[in-house]
Amino acid sequence: xxxxxxxxxxxxxxxxxxxxxxxxxxxxxxxxxxxxxxxxxxxxxxxxxxxxxxxxxxxxxxxxxxxxxxxxxxxxxxxxxxxxxxxxxxxxxxxxxxxxxxxxxxxxxxxxxxxxxxxxxxxxxxxxxxxxxxxxxxxxxxxxxxxxxxxxxxxx
Length: 156
Hints:
Elements: H1 3-27, H2 33-53, H3 67-86, E1 96-100, E2 106-110, H4 111-135, H5 145-150
Antiparallel strand pairs: 1-2
Helix pairs in contact: 1-2, 1-3, 1-4, 2-3, 2-4
């Protein structure tokens, strides 16, 4: 599998895992604030990095979204990601992208590293959400990559 196909597969996994977590939060009578805040951050940061890849201004990194808003924002992401992967820019993973982080520091990273970071960042914070849910007595959804493969949630 080439890198382009592999990264697209990782984004399919990321979307499935985010959907699983958001769906689990929607089913709760009261979703823990910290879990909601973390999932809002997960989804928002995907928009941040996609904006940086396109040379656009960063949207909010820690928005105060409700679970319903997180769901709406998450639902729009797959189409945005798919459009990005169809673009010429996504075909060259070695292309350097310069941007300022939230502290105003200037950085330059490759498209491939940024795309990998998006997925890894989401995975990291979904783990935090799982911890918050467990700490409040709620079983978190099983969102491991291998689970997505085993249950054919992502394409081969």
